[in-house]
Amino acid sequence: MRQRHAISDDDWARIQDFLPGQPGQHGKVAKDNRLFVDAVLWIARTGAPWRDLPERFGH
Questions:
Q1: 40 in Cβ contact with 32 (< 8 Å)
Q2: What stretches of 1-59 adopt beta strand conformation (E)?
Q3: 22-37 burial, b if ≥16 CB within 10 A, otherwise e?
Q4: What's the number of domains the chain is made of?
Q5: How confident is the model at residue 2, as a pLDDT?
Q6: How far is CA 1 from the centre of its chain?
Q7: How far is CA 56 from CA 5, 16, 25, 36, 46, in A?
Q8: Whose CA is closest to 36, among 12, 4, 13?
Q9: Residue 4: inside a domain, yes or no?
Q10: Do 40 and 59 meet the contact criterion of CB atoms below 8 Å apart?
């Protein structure tokens, strides 16, 4: 089951290749781009400050 503020699988498929931190790109490989996008959506939809981000999103 998808979390309430999480990006849908269809939307994720559309944007995942545009995000930085992909294997083979210059620089560090991202740990989990989808989790980061979900965190940004959670902040945007709730209006909460970053410090109140739920633990499920990590540090």
A1: no
A2: none
A3: eeeeeeeeeeebeeeb
A4: 1
A5: 60
A6: 17
A7: 12, 20, 27, 11, 15
A8: 12
A9: no
A10: no
| pLDDT on residue 25 | 67
Q: What pTM was estimated for this model as a whole?
A: 0.76
The count of other CB atoms within 10 Å of the CB of residue 18 is 8
- Reduce the DSSP state of residue 19 to 3 states and report it: coil
Cβ 2 vs Cβ 41: under 8 Å: no
Domain around 32: 9-57
46 found inside a domain: yes
Torsion over CA: 28, 31, 36, 38 (sign): positive
pLDDT digits (tens, 9 = 90+) for 6-52: 899 999 999 988 887 777 767 666 678 889 899 999 999 999 999 99
Q: What pLDDT, on the 0 to 100 scale, is given for residue 1?
A: 53
